[in-house]
Amino acid sequence: MLRFLVRRLLGAIPLLLGVAVLSFLFMQLAPGGPDALFARNARMSEAQLQQIRQNMGLDRPAPEQLLRWIGNLLRGDLGISYSQYRPVTEVIGDVFPNTVLLMAVGLTLSLVLALSFGILAARHPYGFFDNVASFLSYFGLAMPVFWFGLMLQLFFAVRLGWLPSAGMVGANGSGPLDIARHLILPAITIAIGSIAGWSRYVRSSTLEQLAQDYVRTARAKGLVDQRVIRGHVLRNALIPFVTVVAIDAPLYLTGAVLTETVFSWPGMGRLFFDALTVRDYPVLMGILILGAVLIVVGNLLADVVYGLLDPRISVR
C-alpha cells in the first residue's frame, strides 16, 4: 500500500507542474492585472504604477517570472494578492474553512440521498418511485444552479421567512445554530446537481449487479433481499460510483462559484468570483493549483477505496 501511494504521488508531480505552467501562461495572456487594477485610481501616476510592477517582479521577462513563481510555489508561497496586498496563502486560508464546511454538509447530503434514491429505484425499476426519481433527476441536471438558489431564497427566506437569505452569520449572532440556519439553503443548492447525477449512477450500477448470476445464487440459497443487497450487490455497485464521487467532490471547493455568490457565502467560490472581477491573478492561480491538488488526492483516495470494496483489486 505504501509503495502504491508513493508511486502515485510521484506520478502526480508532473501533472501538477503542468497545471501550474498552464495556469501561469493563461494568466499572462489574459488582459488586466495590476495595470487595470491600479489604473482605476486617477491619482496614481505612471511612475508609481511602474514602481508597483517592479516591486512585484512584473517588469521581468515572462520565462523569468514563471521560474520565480514555480520556485516560490515549491516553498508554499503563492505570491501577493493584487487587490488585498496580502499573501495569497492568507487570503485563501481565511475562506477555506468556510468552503470546507459547506462542502462537507453538501457532500454528506448528496451521498445519503443519491444512495437512497438510486438503490430504491433499482429495487423497484420502472415503478412509481423510479419514475418520480427519474423526473427529479432530469430536472436537477437541467436546472441552472443559480436559478434554483434564487427560488429557494424567494420561497423560504422572502415568502415564509423561515431561513436567512444570505451570508454565513446573522447580525445578532454567530453561534453554531445561526451558522447552521444560514447553511441549509446553500448546502441544498450545491448538492442538488450531485444528487441528480449520482443517483442515476447508483441506479444503473445496482441494476447491472442485480442481474448477475451470483445474486440469483444468493437468493436461491435463501438469503433475504436486504442482506443480498447489503452484503453482495453494494460492494460491486459502488465501485464506479466511487470514481464519480472522487472526481466531483474536490470540485465542490472550486466549483461553488455560483452558489457562494448567490448566497454571499464567504468561501473559495466567492473569492474566485471576486478575484476574477478585479483580475487578481495570483489568487486565481492559487485557487486553481489547490483545486488540482484536491483532484489528485481525491483520485488517490478512490483507488484506496477500490481495494476496500473489492479485495480482487490489488493496490500495490
Task: Explain what the structure shows.
With 316 residues, the chain is an all-alpha fold. The chain is 76% helix and 0% strand. The protein has 14 helices and no strands. The chain is globular and about 85 Å long. The model has no long low-confidence stretch (mean pLDDT 79).
Per-chain topology:
Blueprint (H helix, E strand, L loop, with lengths): L1 H28 L4 H5 L7 H11 L5 H13 L13 H36 L4 H15 L2 H15 L16 H35 L2 H8 L4 H24 L2 H4 L2 H6 L5 H10 L3 H29 L7
Q: Which regions have little confidence, pLDDT < 50, spanning 5+ residues?
A: none
The CATH architecture of the largest domain would be: Orthogonal Bundle
Distance between the termini: 5 Å
The top-level CATH class of the largest domain is Mainly Alpha
Report strand %.
under 5%
Number of helices: 14
Mean of pLDDT:
79
What is the rounded Rg? Answer: 24 Å
The tally of structural domains comes to 2
CATH topology of the largest domain: MetI-like fold
The CATH homologous superfamily name of the largest domain equals MetI-like
Number of strands: 0
List SSEs in N-to-C order: HHHHHHHHHHHHHH
Which descriptor suits the 3D outline?
globular
Content-based structural category? mainly alpha
